[in-house]
Amino acid sequence: MGTKPDQPRGAHQDVPSNTEPGGATRDERARGGPRTLAEALRAGGDEELAALLRARPDLLNPVPGDLTQLATRAGTRASVVRALERLDRFALQAAEALAVAPDPAPYNSLLALLTGDNGDDDGGDPAVAAALPGAVAVLRTQALIWGADDRLRLVRTARELLAPSPARPSPTGLGPTVAEATAGMSPGRIQEIVATAGLPSTHDPVSAVAALTALFTDHERMAALLDTAPPEASAVLDRLVWGPPYGEVTADPAPPVRWLRDRGLLLPASPRTVVLPREAALHLRAGRAHRVPQPQPPRLEAAASVLAARPQVVDGAAAGQALTALSTVEDLLQDWHEGGPQVLRAGGLSVRDLKRTAVALDTDEPTAAFWLELAYAAGLLATDGASDEAYAPTPAYDSWLELPAPERWARLAGAWLTATRTAGIVGFLDAKGRALSVLGPGLDRSAAPEVRRRVLTLIGELPPATAPTTESLLARLRWERPLRGAGGASYGATAVTGTGGDGGMSEGTATDLRSRLAAWTLAEAESLGITGRGALSTHGRALLGPDTGPDFSATAPVHADRLRAAADALAPMLPVPLDHVLLQADLTAVAPGPLQRPLAETLAVLADVESKGGATVYRFTPGSVRRALDAGRTASELHSFLATHSRTPVPQPLSYLIDDVARRHGHLRVGAASSYLRCDDDALLDEITADRRSEGLKLRRLAPTVVASLADPSALLAGLRSMGYAPAAESAEGDVLIARAHARRTPPRTPPAPQPDGPPVPDATLLGAAVRAIRAGDLAATVATKPATAPDGSRRPAVGGELPRTTAAETLATVQAAVMTGSAVWIGYVNADGAASQRVIAPVRVEGGFVTGFDHTADEVRTYPLHRITGVAELADD
């Protein structure tokens, strides 16, 4: 590159000479402002402290002992990352601007970085100026910034995360400052750059860097310098100005690059890489840290297909889907009534069983996975815990079936809304490269409940019967949580000798998790009937309820009142269950709507479902009638059942079918020999044994009315039925066996608990107790005490953070005096586990080797053994 060898970084630093430990300056100390985050928290009120703990609940686990511990914990990397992930795009842009601003920065400097300060016509955005106070307030509330408006400070960890570095460019696309970029440069090379830029030479590198910085930050002089640049040099700057600021150069760069490098507009970052200094980039950007500030969230756009929809249409469509959802879950669990598939060794359902379930539900596999996970989340489906573990309905399923349809739907919708298990990721690979299976481990995504509720809330903010476009909804979610997406922004080095590309930020091609969750939410809410035609239904609004408040948790169970309100809103839109069907001459029955449960259960045994929809069509066949007879029904009972529940006369072909099957049913008897077949009609047995189709049954005539078989009874029954006969099974006593379905149920199970996204939001009671404890602990840690009396009679002040040390006699005398005067004292205490602490107590009684008093640290009355008190000191009068 033609530059001199780099010197070790840190040869000189642009650090104010009046800086004091802790990041503050002597000017701040003199002005009486807070010097640390702990002091800023100490100066605030209890409301500000409670707001911080509510916004960042991870700081409460465990409750900090004092404000210094709280400030330290608030500055840890994990906590700061979590806080940054909860910021919206504009609040994050404000934090990013502070990360590249001088520390501390006045409010006006921050505003200038977001609106531009070069006097351009488009530099002052009133929307930015109006929104910035709110963004600063959010950052203050979350303790990401502190200090007065004239000295705003970004928490050091946040600055390290957001400020540019060679390994991680800034999200703003800005590079290091001139001082940072020249930290390892030789003094001679710095003087050459100063001279080439038209500046007078200086006697030391620090002043030379300051002069170059002053040039780049002076609008008039910088503009004059750029006016002399070749057009090709301006094109190079245009590719670097909005980031990434790094560019690759060859050993012999082109003349435009040499011109920029010689004047410090490009500074070496490595032997083959140059960087555009931050001050120069800000001048070229008209002082803006971001190309496009986004102070306002994107507006939701209404989908064209629903612009003419009415609330009645939306509610009707949603109610229809709700009824279909109930029917689907019932069909699923009815299919597993006698026991479902076995559980994989690693947990979950096999791919083959998922395919079978999808075929049984007449849907695709992703949709079948959703219904399975919904039944599991609602506690209707679980594993039975047997040695050959399998899935089966739970006892709660039977209770659920007894509820009215609206209440059953509300239970399903409430379970879906708060569940963290996500059916959409079934088939994805986990960290070990294994495919995730439905009902298996690894499907929890803690962000799912928050995204579901937020998506539905955004839809609910639109006018009734209005659905948003998917693109505008996803754009809104990305604005609200820009750091939550996978992929995110990627920065690289733009070759300054190449062509093409603007060097800007490129979004990852993979869809982020929140966008996937939002897309799945739209589809699942439509399938459940929470939305209709993409718009939020009336019962969906009732399920969400009013404003959730600051203490709301997305994973908390939906309150019973909201479930009841949703069920009440849905009930008028669902059809009343019918007690009749329409029998037709073609051996079918039409159910024009949902049937009452006893009727539906009996009809499901007597006939096969042929088609579903607004009306369900059942078909009567010899096999279905035989199934009803096997279940213990007689022909007369079937005739009576159909006559009672049919609005049309019973067709003659159906009566003949029932009588014909009943006449032959049980004529043949099958028992266990291995098995045997007996019949009073020896001619019929002759016919069976002579039939070629019976060869596989290995029949052998034992008597005129008895035939033995090597097949087991169930195989013999199935074989004879496949030949067109209607045999019946009999017991060892010769009685006909009634073949009824035996319901298989798991032991009582609780639904899977949602996995929350971090600690839960504390309620008002916990917040109040935590604030009092932190304040009391801070009082004990920072309390001013009177000088203690040393053994030699001298007086010495107590050192901050050091436990007081007094003799047993002095301790007893001091606390007894405090009881008489009613004053508070500062004690050092060591508990039974050997943990030492400092406390401020107001003693009220001393007896039997114990002191009882009000502990300001714990905010309660406590008793302490005197022998565990290391020492005591009186509080200073002020």
Structure description:
Helix 25 runs antiparallel to helix 26 (560-570). A 5-stranded mixed β-sheet has the order 19-20-18-17-21, with helices on one face. Strands 27-26-25-24-28 form a 5-stranded antiparallel β-sheet. The relative contact order is 0.08. Helix content is 42%, strand content 12%. It is of the alpha+beta class. The protein folds into 6 domains: 26-162, no CATH class; 184-284, no CATH class; 304-482 and 510-571, no CATH class; 582-664, no CATH class; 669-729; 783-874, no CATH class. The longest helix is centred in the middle third of the chain and has 25 residues, at 311-335. It contains 34 helices and 28 strands. It is elongated, with a radius of gyration of 39 Å.
